Here is the input.
Amino acid sequence: MLRFVAIFLACLTVSLPVPAQQADAPIQQVLQSHRDILLESSRRTIGPAIDTLANSGLPAAQDVLERWQTKDMWFNEDSGLFVYAEEIDRDTLRIFDFANGSEIGIVPDDDFDQLKPNSGIRSMIGTALVQFQLSDPDRDTRVAALNAIERGAEKSHLAALRDSIPTESDEALLQRKMRLERLLTIRFGETDAARIEAIKSFAGDLGVDVRAALNPLVAVRLEAAAALPDAPDIGRTLVPGSEALSRHDAYALLVDDGLAKPRISRDNQRTALIENIEDGQVAGIRVATLDSQSARDLAYAALAEQGTVDAVATAAEVEERLANHVFYERYIGAPPEVVAAAQLALGAIENKVAVNRAFDLGLDALSLASIYFLAAIGLAITFGVMGVINMAHGEFIMMGAYTGYVVQLFIPDYTLSIMVAIPLAFAVTFGAGVAMERLVIRWLYHRPLETLLATFGISIALQQIAKNIFGTQARPLTAPGWLDGSWVINDIVSISYIRIAIFGLALLFLALILFVMNRTRLGLEVRAVTQNPRMAASMGINPDKINMLTFGFGSGIAGIAGVAIGLYAKVTSEMGSDYIVQSFMTVVVGGVGNIWGTLLGATMVGTLQKGIEWLNPSNTLAAQTYMILFVILFIQFRPRGIIALKGRAAEA
Amino acid sequence: MTDAAFPRRQPIALRFPSVMIFLAILALFTVGVTILSEGFGIGVISTSFVKTLGKTLCLCLVALAMDLVWGYCGILSLGHMAFFGLGGYAIGMWLMYARTEIIVLESLAAAPLPPTPQEVSDGIASQIFGVVGAAEFPPIWAFAHSLPLQLAAVVLVPGLLALVFGWLAFRSRVTGVYLSILTQAMTLALSLHLFQNDSGLRGNNGLSGLQNLPGQSDISQDIVSLWFFWASAVALGLGYLLCAWVVSGKFGSVIRAIRDDEARVRFLGYPVEAFKLAVFTLTAVIAGIAGALYYPQAGIINPAEVAPIASIYLAVWVAIGGRGRLYGAVIGAAFVSLLSTWFTGGQAPDIGLGFYTINWVDWWTVLLGLSFVCVTLFAPKGIGGLVDLLVDRHSLDRHGADLGPDQGALREQEAEK
Here is the structure.
């Protein structure tokens, strides 16, 4: 105390221009008690100063920390007191007292040293500041503090968080704080019982943060010993050579622990041998004979016997060492009881995650199925109902997509342009389909193989024309803004709106086609012409016209499907050929001549592809390969598809 | 039918004058190209064009196979280029392995210690598979060190695949367009599989450097190209003889009958499936051999070569040439593929329309597609049909009588003979 009085006196006497400052204010005393480390400003030693300040409970502590962090804290060399200051210009400061925030005066900065905490210290100060910000009246500050805790939690945050919960007024923030409090309890809880309690409270929670908090608890360290120790923190034992622990890694562990002699890699062995070549010989063995691994092992062993190189383990020794040791995992993240609770909770979470993944996969499969359905449904009409193989179907899909692209060039509003593009795509491909039917297909109704070839010719011509007009690069077909984003159900299950829209479109088409085929005059005539064209003609139906309209209808639907597919994938001249084989397989698997069959076929092909992708993730090529193989096998057992037409209709 | 009209003892060449004519033309062509080549002749034809001609002969061979399976047996296979590609991959594996082995041995010979077998193998593997990030031989390369085994694979791999696939397809009575789509699915699956980097065949990169014969690096490509040209010509000649022999006898009659009415042949007691399987497998083997001769001349093989579109082009060649006659397939393949080379090689003059210039590199495919449609519609006999005009062959007048069932059968064309 005497010292402070002396300084106070010195202050009064020496630096007169500086008005009185509360040198014995509690905050100043705290600062003074850590003056040396504050001035040293080293990340290694600064900890106690920050802790004392943060835990002092003084109202000015937050202010000090903030000013310090922003490099506004200065040290008066004359008085030995800490102040904060604003720089008026290069040489002049306006200084303030921490104790009450009152201005002390404007002084030249000759006697003042600025405290310049480095970035490491600033982040430590930031962490300490969080506890003040948690109860800050400003909501944004509180949110920022919570974000900071989520990024890097400290043990001290737990108490601060608990303190701030009773005063929290915002309901959403309160929920967040309480959840965060439980998460922090898992990590820093004082007693094991409290931690286990917190762990149990998260049973079945799908949050990524929960798994992030639990996973470190069940962390393990691989250890080896001659016999399995009898301790509660021992996890599973591993057998060398199994999937979890390769023999190489197991032996490397023994070497690291000093339990075995090191082995030598082939490269090092070769280097050692080369270094010891003398007169064309290594340890008395001619170099020319060292063309096999066993000869090299012998030469190296001979060198080791001479003492030229370090002895290494032989294969037999490796074998023996591995056999004489047990390898086990030791839990290092937490005490055994907590580990057990964490494992239980993780197990429950994983089960729930698996269920949700399956659900998410189901949604994915459904959306892929609806894309295949859209691509195949036009084909189901031309191929399934009329029996005409149209290999240019994929190109009709492409034409529809390019129609959408061209429309968007002229109509910048995406919603409106899609509204225009859908009927226009239908019109364009309907026209193309009718033209193709009139010009080519009607001459080939009795020669299905040649229909297939002729439409192939049209397909490659159309594809090349598209390439010549639009170029080879992919063109965008942009979805309206309200289709952006996705519907997020939880951390695992989500589906983009565009896929929902495609699903809805597929359902709409299904309803439309069922209605047209079963409830309208056109549908009746189509079915009549399909079953028996001559009889239909005698009843006053014009088979030519019906065939033309049916083919146009099927092609038009392909055009609309093209717009839908273009929204979700890029528009290229080859997009049609990407779907044609899958579309045919969808129709064939489902059963030719049946709309419901196409639906089932699309569901099966889509589910199958997603299922295989799930078994072999990140490899869609393999998924497609296996899917095709499966379909080839499936045709063996149900050559006429899932729903096979029976009786006379099957012969038509 | 020709069989009935001639006694059996007569040699095949006499019964089918077209075989003799074809072989004579092929021999003349081969001698002519040799004389004009850079390797042994006066150097009018460049080496690269000799290669193009050699490749064309291989394409003619695979077109022969396609004609046998489609034109004679009625199976429109859209997967025969898969067998062609498999043959190419089989020989390519040996070519690449053997050549890399020589390079690796040379580089290791400079090392102070003689290399161990493991080091050699690791060196070759990292050279070949470094590009797909692997450094070990996949199991399918187990026989790549041996030329005889890989030559056996040229025949066996396509043959076995065709046997298994055909057996599965034919026993469940998959016919017509369904079979076409199924074969297309097969070749799509194969190409998708090969596109993967872990397929063991270098994924997208394919096998390259196949034009260099291992251990013959001092022989110039002028000579090597002629060797392959001769081999291709011999293979085409032998293949033509084989196909002519197959379609000439009773076997040929049965497969044509299957094409025209499968059910009727089955009711007559013939094992239709066995016949189809035999033709399918035989043609797959021929396609494999053609591929094994083609790709060393092309120099590179990658999965795009077995994409479905390649097999469709094969069908296009045969259709344009005229299916159901062997020389038709050869004419079609040679004509269309050479024309295609000419157009896409940028040699064809552009046509200026004032407002737009038709650049044939871009528009050739359109022309091909549309002319193919026209051939299908207006000239189902293809170019080979011109021969009928030449030899003044007329169709029978059936006075409008019904020709029988027509599910994809070539009844009109057949009845006309």
Notes: Chain A is about 60% helix and 10% strand.
